[in-house]
Amino acid sequence: MHPYSKLPARSFWKKFVSDSPWFALQLNDEPKFRLHVDDRVATAGSCFAQHITRYMQRAGLPPYVAEPAHPLMIEHGGNVESYGVFSARYGNIYTVRHGVELFEQAFGIIPMIEDFAEHEGRWFDLLRPNVQKEGYASRHEAQADRAYHLERVRAMFETADVFVFTLGLTECWFNSAAGHTYPACPGTVRGTYDPEIHHFRNFTHAEVVADLDRLIGELGRVNPRLKLILTVSPVPLVATRTGHNVLVASAYSKAVLRAAAGEVEAKHDHVAYFPSYEIVSHPASFGQYLASDLREVTERGVAHVMRCFLSSFYGIEPQTGRGEVPVVAGAENAVAVAPRVEAPLPECDELFNSAP
């Protein structure tokens, strides 16, 4: 008799991995908590996180949208593409630092960051460069919309039951004069790059852990009942500014994020980790969920991730086939908290890093 004698099959590589087809593996462990169909599930993070909203809708679960499009915009064909992608209209949040700064603005810990750029008579918010694609008519309009956005972010954090945060990158650009972080380097999506102001940084494991600890602590202060689910995006970097090749830089980034998420999750009973990164990216998957560019995740891969997610947190029967995500029992009675808008396909600001 020894410590491994009575462990379940999932504890052994041969029994759990070698002897089973990848699509049939239930890689998610028993979760720390379960979710209910009526829970308000807020989402944020990298572009991969946008899949969560789409697949929750397919499963009959209305995602929590605290910043919805006005019903008249939907009725009269207004541009509502950026509404409902996440729970608020913040666009992609690639780094934890960006998430911390968003929270701090929403709750008045730091002043609202005003970093706007004018192009051909239209104004753009560089902290949400791809949200309002056609821009704003004036700087004042951009400021007003940003202030409203932060108000809705505050409401989201105060009223959500669950916050799913997908960690995407360690690399980012920040404003050395004002000290804030960008989702994309100015001059790629919008704005003009200024080497005197816009500086590159690559967060360390210690920095990511510190930022996660701060965010979790602040969230607990404003919403003590909030549960968190951390995931890591399996999508590699599209480009790197580190000087290393992009494959090595991606390995560093994902390793740091995965290690940080694991370290932080182990400290808290109300914080869980979900292995979307492992489902798609582990070598044992033989890359079967990657598109021909070996970067984008196929719909088949996303469906596997979301089947495991729903099985783990909503307790539905494990799905071992390759079919669509099932509708969660009881979801037909869940009440939507905003006019339903079909979430568009994910868009990644990071893709502009590879543009000429």
From TrEMBL:
Domain GSCFA: 40-309
InterPro entries associated with the record: GSCFA
Protein name as it appears in the record: GSCFA family protein
Species this protein is from: Caballeronia choica
